[in-house]
Amino acid sequence: MKLTKIFLGVALAATSLAQTANASNLRMSWWGGDSRHKATQVALKACGDKYGHTIAAEFTGWDGHLEKVTTQIAGGTEADIMQINWPWLPLFSINGDGFADLNQYKDIIDLSQWTKDDLAAGTMNGKLNGLSVSTTGRVFMFNKTALDKAGVAIPKTWDELFAAAKTLKTKVGPEAYPMNAVKETAVLLISLYTTQNTGKDLVDQKAKKVAWSAEELAKGIDFYGKLVKEGVVQTQKSVASEGNLNLFESPKWADGRISGSYEWDSTFSKYADPLKGQKLEPVSILKNTDAKTEGVYRKPSMVFSISKRSKDPKAAAQILNCLLNEPEGINAMGTARGLPASKIAAKTLIDGGKIEPEIVAANAIIMNGTGPTVSPLNEHPEVRAVFIDTLEEYAYGQIKSQEAAEAIIDGVNAVLKKF
Amino acid sequence: MSGDHRFLGLLYLSPYIIGLLVFTALPFLASFYLSFTDYNLMSTPTFVGIANYAKLLTADRTFKKSLSITLFYVFTTVPLKLAFALFIAVILNYKLKFINFFRTAFYVPSILGGSIAIAVMWRYLFADVGIVNMALQGIGFEPVNWFGDPTNALFTITLLRLWQFGSAMVIFLAALQSIDKSLYEAASIDGAGKFATFWHITMPLITPVIFFNLIMQMVQAFQEFNGPYIITQGGPLKSTYLLPLYIYEAAFKRFDMGYASAIAWVLFAIIMVLTLIAFWSSRHWVYYAGDKRS
After folding, report:
1. Is A91 part of the contact surface with chain B (CB cutoff 8 Å)?
2. So which residues are the signal peptide here (chain A) (predicted)?
3. Does A98 touch chain B (CB under 8 A)?
4. How far is the first Cα of chain A from the last one, in angstroms, to the nearest whole number?
5. Which segments in chain B show pLDDT lower than 70?
6. Interface TM-score (ipTM) > 0.95
């Protein structure tokens, strides 16, 4: 009997030690808004408990996250699991060596849950550097409650958008705008209009230069000028005077004075959250009848990557698989990053009725939209900076649209030459 | 001092010395080397000679604009801040009721002033519907576009720096209190008025402190980052795009560490030259008691 007790004691101790030996302390970093922060922390706790790992959460807003990750990677202090924006993959891992190759952990991560296209989008030089979390794109979203109050129907074409602005000014007041366009959103609205007119993306991937002529781009910039002139969007000067607030932090957005925007479908909740008691509705891409394409700006959104320096990449792979493919992670994460790219995650959430119909609708607009393939170089920090800075000069009346178009094309071509 | 004691002294100093070497001296030297390289953080630095400096000084319009804005900012904020700090110090040098409370109250902004929270608060104070515009409208003025107008935006950032006058003020106050009272009595007996007393007695005696504050404030103003980064992001039209912002963007937005290091070294050289000029000029206007030159 005594011997049995000793044997049992040793066996129990060995079991508990074995569990301790497998437990890892991991870190995960991401950017996002409040709803994403909360959901991810719950998911990390659930997955950590399941596998006996502890995962420290490192989260920020979008602003400055690229700088943070870059500094961490350069200093070798990045988190084990990272949320990486898809256009950053060529910045960090042009040869595929910047992150762990997830193919090596296919016995832990169920890669069959992703389409070939999704896996290809996360592959750099033959190495799977990131797993697509969702496919995202820019979608129009309107505050239906605010528009209904003013008796304005949700616009479906550019002409209807201009008409909506006129009605809003009359019925609500001069400070009512049916659309938001500043900095990146202004750039993407101009890009959308120009893509619809030309049928081409900004970047000609093969020639490594801007695909639009200066005249074509100038027409897009004039379109932005018209949006401002006719009171569809605020002037840049006016947005700056408010302290350059993010739209979702702006009182004008919260109370419906700004009643529409053109944002990532994966951020739908971030823009819906401040609209207490009001309904935000995703809307098909606005275009006029002569458009060559809808010009949908669709891309893999962020990917989840594992650091090549992770001390326990297998534990990180377990957590990654749990977050994206297992019920504990799927249910906790919900749609905080849009409609999941993982088939099992999408099915679980849809079957469980856990996806808000608006999120499904927003994603469907993106997935069904037509348009040329979007180059990741559209979002190269220097390309964006050239576009935003030059557009600001135009918005402040320093230069004409033709000059702005030429300056943007020259600036972007100079960046594209490096690739 | 015995050898053991020398070792003990060094041991006590070692945290500071190690910190200085690792966190200041090493990055300082590394940035000098990097300024001659093409380095994007992800790959090994490639030596490019003086190419970064050549581009910076001959072909970079953004640098020229940023430099001129930075110099304007420094040459306006530093004298204004020193004058204001001295003015308040003179007032707080009087024997008033609750004087310690006032001294503390005026110093508090300096503790908080450079923080992110205060920069965010500034953004709300000077927003189009902020308290400043509400106050202006309350007394019959038109609201001002503080952040959206390029001519006003730098002024708003300047105000943030002026608001942090407390540390300079405390140093001025200490200097004012150390002046021998018998000098004022003598001046009074000789019939000197308040302005003459201030100009001929107070000012000469506090010139070493003015000089100290001038150097410190100038160096700090050249390094201003938080205000323009949080409040205006360097805009509009780069009207608040001070050199530290340009360094940051070159380094962490474009990942051009070599170029960013070159800008940092040009900034260092400018601060160095202006400091040397200030030191050189000090022999003509700074009075040190007991100094034969004086």
Report:
1. yes
2. 1-23
3. yes
4. 74
5. 1-4, 113-114, 289-294
6. no
Nearest 5°: phi and psi at B236? Answer: -80, 150
pLDDT tens across A150-193, in order?
999 999 999 999 999 999 999 999 999 999 998 899 999 999 99
Mean pLDDT score across all residues of chain B: 90
| pLDDT per residue as tens digits for the range A340-389 | 999 999 999 988 888 888 888 998 999 899 999 888 889 888 899 999 99
Cα-Cα-Cα-Cα dihedral of B70, B72, B74, B79, to 10°?
Answer: -170
A71 interface with B at CB cutoff 8 Å: yes
The answer to whether residue A250 is domain-embedded is yes
What local confidence, expressed as pLDDT, does residue A5 receive?
Answer: 56
C-alpha distances (whole Å) from A48 to each of A22, A28, A104, A219 are 12, 12, 22, 53
B54-285 fold:
MetI-like fold (1.10.3720)
Nearest CA in chain B to A251: B129
The tokens for A289 are: 């009848």
Within-domain flag for A346 = no
Is the domain of A381 the same as that of A261? Answer: yes
Determine the Cα–Cα distance for residues A338 and A136; give it in Å rounded to an integer: 7
Kindly state whether residues A331 and A243 are assigned to the same domain.
no
Tens digits of residue pLDDT in B239-272? 999 999 999 999 988 889 999 999 999 999 999 9
- The domain of A100 spans 24-134+301-341
Say if residue A196 is in the same domain as residue A279. Answer: yes
Q: How far is B46 from chain A (nearest CA, A)?
A: 16
Contact state of B126 with A67 under an 8 Å Cβ cutoff: no
Q: Coil, strand or helix: which one is A135? A: strand
For A391, the closest chain B residue by CA position comes to: B237
Same domain, A208 and A335: no
Q: Flag whether pLDDT at A14 surpasses 70.
A: no
